[in-house]
């Protein structure tokens, strides 16, 4: 396999590809990104298979069959093969689901969705759990959310879906809309109808439902922030009176504000911890470009000693560059890490800004140094 095949540039397809290729790339990017909620990573073979599907060389069912055959015929086993096999098969299944125009808004539809996502992976795919569960969560310092009793699962799903079906989005504010969507999705997740795969099922259900009722869903949000999405669901459903912690849906609402309103909340998991350090206690909106953030500690000169930011400022200089150009300038290929550790902190530090700040996904979006960034650049020179 060539080096290029290991690093399929989904963003390039999304930005410049033909409509059909762009949609396929978005679905694959989302499906692969969602595997992070369970700490899973896809194989290089999956990425190459995705490229063939995006290019139109094979259809999605052929892609799924290739992945199945790949693991059946593999003669040399690797330690992480089971995890990669799950991630690969589930990614292909989710891609097929997202490519479909059908949607069943019912409890049976959610159960069927779980079956379709985990077909060929879990023996219990599409089966509602018949036991109670707890899960230790890092953001809760090892505590667990109180999930619904298994005997009430079907009834709870039916009730939540019935209430949502009756709800009208007509003439409500953006704030009320976001709060309601977050509450509905949070409730579906808290039911935790299945033994495994609840967050991935909830995410796919959410994408399909929002599309169904007319929203244009930014799939990139689920692709790049699926782990934040899960932890935000945890915080929205956790309350501990002894520790003075109440339900905190605000983090999930900020995810949906970015998703549906194009806001720029800094979606990093450290803000969600029930006992964050002081530097991670306030989650910033990157559109406000504050003068400093936890990831860019100011030095005595008023700028930063963050090596990632310094490297990016030096590379950008007095030019205007696209995201792809910035990645090339700093010699990186991992877009997610570049955003988290270089670009977003630079924006939050007030050193870099967008050419089109009111339209973050503008097709001709570029980045440039702010006046403060130029001052820092000149000092670095």
From TrEMBL:
PROSITE patterns given for it? Answer: FIDO (PS51459)
Matches recorded under Gene3D superfamilies: Fido-like domain
One Pfam family from the record: Fic-like_C
Asked if RNA-binding is a keyword of the record, the answer is no
Provide this UniProt record's keywords sorted from A to Z. Answer: ATP-binding, Nucleotide-binding, Nucleotidyltransferase, Transferase
Documented EC number(s): 2.7.7.108
Q: For this protein, what reaction is catalysed? A: L-tyrosyl-[protein] + ATP = O-(5'-adenylyl)-L-tyrosyl-[protein] + diphosphate; L-threonyl-[protein] + ATP = 3-O-(5'-adenylyl)-L-threonyl-[protein] + diphosphate
Concerning InterPro entries, the annotation shows: Fic-like_C, Fido, Fido-like_dom_sf, VbhA-like
A GO biological-process term: regulation of cell division
Q: Can you provide one Gene Ontology molecular function annotated for this UniProt record?
A: AMPylase activity
Extent of Low complexity compositional bias? 289-301
> Per the record, which residues fall in region Disordered?
283-302
Q: Return the PANTHER family for the record.
A: PROTEIN ADENYLYLTRANSFERASE FIC-RELATED
Protein name per UniProt: protein adenylyltransferase
